[in-house]
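WARN no homologs supplied; continuing
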Amino acid sequence: MASYVNHPLLKKDAIESRLYQQVLAGDVLKKGNTMVVAPTALGKTIVAILVAADRLYKVKNSKVLVLAPSKPLAIQHESSFKEFINLPCTSITGAVKTDERVKRWEESRIVCATPQTVESDLLNGRYDLSNVSLIVFDECHHGVGSYSYVYLASRYVQESKFNLILGLTASPGSDKFKIKEVCENLYIQNIVVKTEDDADVKPYFNPVEIDWVRIKMSEELEKIKGYVDKALKVRLKALKNMGVIKTVAVNKVDILKARSRIQGEIARSANPDKDLFQAISILSAVINVQHAQELIETQGVSTFNRYVARLRKKQTKAAKSLMWDDNFSRAVKLAKDAEKHGWEHPKLRELTKILKKELGSGDGQTKLQSTRFADREDESSSKIIVFTQYRDTLEMIHQKLEKEGIKSVKFFGQATKDGEKGLTQKEQKAIIKSFRMGEYDVLLSTSVAEEGIDIPAVDLVILYEPVPSEVRMIQRRGRTGRKRTGRVKVLITNGTRDEGYYWSSINKENRMKNQLIDPEVLEELNISAVQRMENQKKVKIIERPKKENDFPVVYADSREGNSKVIRHLTEMEIDVKVQPMAVADYQVSDEVAIERKTAKDFVDSIIDKRLFKQARELSEEFKKPLLILEGDDLYAGMVNANAIRGSIASIAIDFGISIIPTRNAQDTAAMIKRIAVREQNGERTPVQVRTDKKPVSLLEQQLFIVESLPNIGPVNAKNLLEHFGTVGNIINASEKELQEVEGIGKKTAENIRKVIDSKYLYFQKEIKEKRLL
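OK structure emitted
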């Protein structure tokens, strides 16, 4: 008979008592900030719920913040916490309106949220983290670089009175430097690793059997691959003869490093040698051929053919040279013929064979058809997920299974690729629901289903190809074995990079486990985290000014919301207001607006022709436009250095935009602060932020002029024009007459008259200076 966890805040008989989960929760509560590394099926969320219940009970009136990388996962956590804890719980995502988010934060004890949304709210001063007694970072391996987890951890340590951090992940990675970076960014003091092999876990864990299915490449594919190999060999020999590479035995990483080195040489030279540009073209072609090689080895001819079709559309020398290459052309012809004859990769045949056997076919029906339209999830029915890296392969598998009478559904991300629209979150949710109910036998998925998606009772996971990432392998494995013994089948083509990827993931996983349990590493982490938390606590917390003119104000476009620049500005005693802006990234006065571009973005905007359009709008909208160019790697890309220099000259001369170089995001923030201080000169006057571009029609111009008056928005502007008839009549109206209009109070009327009647202060200052002279 099962026993359950008893706690004043937990629902009765809700959480089954599992010793290892309670021990993990105890470790977090005793040892401080902890990263729990465990496969999906071990119940990391339950550990978070146990820790949360204890903190909420002991720290009166405090909150728990649970962060997840995606909206569906945040909502999933909300559902889990509501199921087990007797306290108000809600979710906060970008889909929720600002006022509603603030209301939810104030009324709830448990908040499940996406990190970007919370970061934006904190930067705008909508609420703070002072009474958060626990913050949970789900999929905490994301806590690197400029990801929102990094900022929120530092803000929490700095602001909260009751610090406790819990990180959850199936794997933080095998790179010890990345593991260390995650731990440092999230102030982790302790790491606990749990596996299915641990003695206290085994009684509750359904083992996962892994079957590596070896497949021999077909003769047709061998011929196609042979010609692709020849096309690659010719180019590698050319690069070796040019001294770009030392040997033809290179991989993709070696080629990328070589390309970066050559790009650097081009950037450093005022008149680069033509051979360098030829080398860049050949290196680009090699990258294309290597990818084509991988598709033939691991995916099949239809995926290869779709890639070639995309290459044909490219106008680069590298792409054209491949299309003219005899060897590559022969490979393309053979692949087209193979697809016409239905000669696909043997993996597809093996996959179909496995699925038929698993699902059981007889008289055209499958085992699942009797339960396909059940009212609820039937846990006795089998469910299968097939993972593959490419959407093209996903489509190929889907078509094959439909022909074979196997009900399958495609599941992929939200991004649009090659004209195919991505799935919305609503569509993704509907697909998962249909799959859970047994409407489909097989879920065909790209990497989107690896992390966080709630797909219970999956009995078999099939990997169409191994992946070199140990994190992704662990996550894919974690999709099975939750309700009963799980199984994983990995399709490997003999003698191809499939084998290399397999061994790579295995070795990385072993290396990760060895690094995580090193006692010296754990001790170092603890000491480092304590010191850094103490230092962070000493950092002055910038409170929102009680008076409007306490700090200089900087308006930032909402698209800059996740930028490190805004984070640094808030630390520099700047009142940052984030809102949508039609033109520019930052505005500090009516006349001065700033477009910020990193070196990479500047080069990208030359390529996609955004740069001059943005420059034109900036110069038309503002009297003193500025461009901040951030970073020192402007010439590291593939664009000709003279093209970059020409663009910079055009921005300055043709558009009259001053260009200010900065080193990094912190330097950019310091520069913006200095400009704001100079412009506002200690007096914070209202800034008319351009939320729309300059009007074109007469009506738009009239509304634009009236909306420029203090405290006048679109509604009041329309009311004023309807009441007075013309802009001139509004300008000439008295305070009393203005107050006759609906929405215009005494204070607003006074401010309007003050702006209209006051003398131009700059003119007065100029007169005084002349008198002094």
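The longest helix spans residues 274-298.
OK
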